[in-house]
């Protein structure tokens, strides 16, 4: 069965790159930085946001950031192997296999998404370093631009000046010979603070040939000044993952590896490795007219992977350097006598990308293809917030962004394995897109508010999405139109100290969606016909007495193509009708139910049950395949006890031993054949942490 190019890219890339029931904020006014790129109170802004605090993370049953995100309304996961999120993608509001390209992931306000399909390395920031995670649904395209189609998820690390002087050591042991050690140290004196976080993780994984080795370190120095602060952060990460491949099912041939060899491997020689570094500088300063902020950053990564492909190996090395500069200003000045804040800023990003292709690690010094691509994104934006009345607040914003890419492909027919290959002709693209947003929040009763918004967002194709083949299997760059989307939502929320409720209805109309066309030979990634996502998100939490907190959230998504026919081919399916069909890999229903019980002093039991309905498999845009990815229900428990400087935890995930998977792909050529990627059955984790103060 042919593995689609996009899946190969995700497997190799996210392998390189490779928490607690949602506790909505109900007390006080939480600081939200993703909503305006400055520190603001959530209750002042008409945004749909969930804040996951450091305490939530510590009490969570989840083991990774994606697991934690999936416990929130509107968030879906696609995980290939279930080994420390090394190959996990996050999908907000139902985009399926391209969810990772339509949900913008940030680290301290900077994008982690690159101009390839390598995905986010979720383990690159240790959990001990996270202060909070903010999920801003629907909003974000004005302030962050490219890729913020469904919203923004911002991972915010701890600041040295916000916590006391201490050091903590944590060790973890679990199923599949999983071991992890973390060290966290923080020091602050006068106006200078320092912290250091280091982590090392090893696991054999649930599957054969699924070993995972990860290490990372991060340090920050923060200096408080008379008018603000200066911050410098550096980080290093290293991830190595073996890739076990799929389990094949084909009833007509009597093949069902999900039953006969669920944990086996079909790709014993496949692996991926990623090494990366990052450095950032941030300066914040109060002036007489407002607050000025300057951010600058640099990241690099080297990614290597090997796919055997049944004796036709593909060995590749990708290198990427990323620079960014983001100056911005916040002007809190009255407008027509009304409280008003204007934010203005500029974003500049540059990616330098090089990909070398060969048939083995020994021949990579003479690759048969060398792809070089340079991409620059430059944007300006304005966002204005006005408090019309004490109960009514509005936001209006706009962004203009220019995208430039130049790509070349040097082909060497004399290189080992290159005799039958080809090179793509140089190509370039220069496009400009815009985003806008209008939103309002009206507090119609104490603790009750209505929220509404409409906006436009966009996404540009990345270099992996445009490097394709012609119908005669010659290399070429297939430049694509930018994807655009218009979104609308309305919601109501209620917040008290002991309870919260939120209901949100949303619609996203997408034009020129960038996605793989697996049916039409020589097309590769393309601009698909128009599609629409409609959905409902419900969230509720209630504190019962002083010891019990109950929560639940429900997500309904109806994701369909509005019109269109894919040409197809005689080798797959001709004229595949997609009009009115459901987008693959988007479940219609997801339900999370949680409980947190302090049943003894300094002892808490957390429980989470997640239900996900069935979904069409990848490559099944026509909805004609004989089976779907089955629905599944997974239950997790975690017990936490604190005593003195100790924090002890014991967790069981997939308590009832559900045999499930959330990614499957149908064959384009064999009528009843598909590949599935089974996830871990019941597994256990023990943790021990000691803090020195």
What does this structure look like?
By secondary structure, the protein is mainly beta. The chain has a single domain (5-692), classed as Beta Barrel (Maltoporin, Chain A). The protein is 6% helix and 55% strand. The strands form eight sheets. It has a 22-stranded antiparallel barrel. A five-stranded mixed beta sheet has the order 3-8-9-6-7. It is globular. The termini are far apart. Residues 1-28 have low confidence and may be disordered.
Can you describe this structure in just a few lines?
The chain is mainly β. It has seven helices and 41 strands. It has one domain: Beta Barrel (Maltoporin, Chain A).
The whole-number mean of residue pLDDT values reads 91
Named CATH topology:
Maltoporin, Chain A
Distance between the termini: 57 Å
Helix tally equals: 7
DSSP strand count: 41
What is the count of distinct domains?
A: 1
Give the oligomeric state. single chain
Question: Proportion of β residues?
Answer: over 45%
Share in helix = under 10%
Residue windows where pLDDT falls under 50 for at least 5 positions: 1-28
Rg, nearest Å: 25 Å
Tell me the overall shape: globular
Largest sheet, strands/sense/barrel: 22 strands, antiparallel, barrel
CATH architecture level-2 label: Beta Barrel
Give the C-level CATH assignment. Mainly Beta
The CATH superfamily appears as: TonB-dependent receptor, beta-barrel domain
Query: Which structural category do the helix and sheet elements fall into?
Result: mainly beta
């Amino acid at each position: 069965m042919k593995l689609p190019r996009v899946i190969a890219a995700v497997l190799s890339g996210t392998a390189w790159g490779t928490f607690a029931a949602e506790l909505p904020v109900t007390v006080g006014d939480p600081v939200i930085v993703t909503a305006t790129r400055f520190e603001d109170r959530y209750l002042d802004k008409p945004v749909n946001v969930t804040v996951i605090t450091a305490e939530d993370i510590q009490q969570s049953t989840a083991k990774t950031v994606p697991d934690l995100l999936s416990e929130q309304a509107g968030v879906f996961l696609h995980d290939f192997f279930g080994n420390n999120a090394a190959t996990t993608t996050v999908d907000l509001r139902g985009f399926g296999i391209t969810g990772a390209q339509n949900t913008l992931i940030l680290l301290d306000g900077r994008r982690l998404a690159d101009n390839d399909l390598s995905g986010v390395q979720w383990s690159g920031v240790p959990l001990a370093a996270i202060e909070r995670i903010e999920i801003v649904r629907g909003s974000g395209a004005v302030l962050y631009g490219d890729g913020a189609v469904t919203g923004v998820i911002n991972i915010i690390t701890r600041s040295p000046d916000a916590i006391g002087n201490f050091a903590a050591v944590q060790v973890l042991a679990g199923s599949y010979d999983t071991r992890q050690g973390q060290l966290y140290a923080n020091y602050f004196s006068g106006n200078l603070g320092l912290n250091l976080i280091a982590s090392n993780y090893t696991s054999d994984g649930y599957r054969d040939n699924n070993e995972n080795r990860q290490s990372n370190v991060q340090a920050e120095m923060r200096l408080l000044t008379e008018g603000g602060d200066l911050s410098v952060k550096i980080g290093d990460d290293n991830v190595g993952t073996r890739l076990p491949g799929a389990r094949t099912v084909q009833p007509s041939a009597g093949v069902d590896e999900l039953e006969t060899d669920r944990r086996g491997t079909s790709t014993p020689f496949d692996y991926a490795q990623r090494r990366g570094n990052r450095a950032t500088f941030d300066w914040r300063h109060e002036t007489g007219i407002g607050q000025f902020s300057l951010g600058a950053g640099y990241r690099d990564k080297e990614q290597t992977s090997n796919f055997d492909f049944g004796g036709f190996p593909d060995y590749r090395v990708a290198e990427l350097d990323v620079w960014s500069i983001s100056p911005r200003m916040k002007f809190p000045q009255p407008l027509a006598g009304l409280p008003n804040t204007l934010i203005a800023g500029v974003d500049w990003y540059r990616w330098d990308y090089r990909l070398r292709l060969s048939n083995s690690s020994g021949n990579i010094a003479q690759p048969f293809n060398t792809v070089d691509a340079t991409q620059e994104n430059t944007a300006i934006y304005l966002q204005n917030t006005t408090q019309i009345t004490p109960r009514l607040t509005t936001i209006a914003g706009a962004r203009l962004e220019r995208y430039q890419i130049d790509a070349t492909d040097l082909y060497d027919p004399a290189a080992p394995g290159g005799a039958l290959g080809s090179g793509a002709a140089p190509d370039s693209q220069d496009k400009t897109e815009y985003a806008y947003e209008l939103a309002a929040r009206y507090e119609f009763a104490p603790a009750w508010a209505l929220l509404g918004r409409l906006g436009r967002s966009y996404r540009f194709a990345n270099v992996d999405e445009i490097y394709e083949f012609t119908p005669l299997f010659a290399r070429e760059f297939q430049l694509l139109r930018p994807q655009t989307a218009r979104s609308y939502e309305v919601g109501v929320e209620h917040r008290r100290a002991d309870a919260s409720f939120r209901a949100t209805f949303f619609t996203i109309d997408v034009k020129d969606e960038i996605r793989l066309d697996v049916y039409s030979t020589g097309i590769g990634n393309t601009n698909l016909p128009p599609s629409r996502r409609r959905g409902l998100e419900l969230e509720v939490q209630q504190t019962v007495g002083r010891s019990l907190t109950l929560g639940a959230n429900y997500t309904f998504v109806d994701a369909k193509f509005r019109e269109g026919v894919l040409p197809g081919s005689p080798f797959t399916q001709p004229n595949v009708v997609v009009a009115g069909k459901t987008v693959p890999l988007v479940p219609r229903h997801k339900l999370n139910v949680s409980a947190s019980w302090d049943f003894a002093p300094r002892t808490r039991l957390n429980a989470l049950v997640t239900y996900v309905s069935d979904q069409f498999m990848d490559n099944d845009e026509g909805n004609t395949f004989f089976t779907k990815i089955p629905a599944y229900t997974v239950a997790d428990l975690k017990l936490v006890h604190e005593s003195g400087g100790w924090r002890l935890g014991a967790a069981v995930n997939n308590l009832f031993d559900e045999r499930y998977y959330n990614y499957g792909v149908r064959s384009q050529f064999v009528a009843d054949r598909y590949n599935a990627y089974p996830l871990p059955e019941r597994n256990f984790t023990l943790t021990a942490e000691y803090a020195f103060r």
